[in-house]
Amino acid sequence: MKRTYLLILLVLSLLFAGCKGEGIKDISVTSARIVSIVPEGLTGLAALVEVEIHNPAMAFEVTDLHGLAKYCGEDAFTADADQLIVAGHADKVYRIPVRGKIADGFNPFQLLRLIGNESSYDDVTFTVQGKVSLRGGIGKNIELKDIPLSSILKKPEQNELPTDME
């Protein structure tokens, strides 16, 4: 029994040592956009977010996704999402359903300033936390802090191909 545990430990060590190659460092979110937002009552909301992920490494899953959005440094809303399974060695778009709640004391009408005012995208930042792991295996908690909306949000006009292409 002791040898079995030792063998499993050795295999896991080799597996995680192999995961530290260049492929893991090259994983990136190449685009993101909000597909829809639906209010739920006075303080709740449901949203569908599309995220394109470039993953040259092996498949992994992200669980316990929690996010906090701030507007001009003030907590605006919190959100949670279900498990996300990211395919290995692929560039793929994932649709992530998100449920959230407007923060106590935050005036949601402040977000109306975002409509038609691209310069205010810098006023919105996100902090995201989650657990990344190999499918069903040991994982690591991650946190991405204060990401400006302008750096990840792909505006609709950027998604369109130029009309002069042949």
List keywords for this structure.
166 residues, alpha+beta, Immunoglobulin-like, 8-stranded antiparallel beta sheet, 8 strands, globular
Task: Describe this protein's structure.
The protein is an alpha+beta fold. The protein has one domain: Immunoglobulin-like (Sandwich). Helices cover 17% and strands 49% of the residues. It has 4 helices and 8 strands. The longest helix has 17 residues. It is globular and about 40 Å long. It starts with a helix and ends in a 7-residue tail after the last helix. The C terminus is likely disordered.
Task: Provide a short characterization of the protein structure.
By secondary structure, the protein is of the alpha+beta class. The chain has helices at residues 2-18, 22-25, 149-152, 156-159, and strands at 28-40, 44-55, 60-71, 74-81, 84-86, 90-102, 124-133, 139-148. It is globular and about 40 Å long.
Task: Could you tell me the CATH topology label.
Answer: Immunoglobulin-like
Distance between the termini: 65 Å
Q: Spell the H/E element sequence.
A: HHEEEEEEEEHH
Fraction of residues in β-strands: over 45%
Large-scale geometry: globular
- Number of helical segments? 4
Poorly predicted spans = 155-166
The residue-averaged pLDDT reads: 77
Main beta sheet: 8 strands, antiparallel
What Rg is obtained from the alpha carbons, in whole angstroms? 19 Å
Task: State the helicity in percent bands.
Answer: 10-25%
The name of the CATH architecture is Sandwich
CATH class bucket = Mainly Beta
Number of domains: 1
Structural classification: alpha+beta
Quick one: how many beta strands? 8
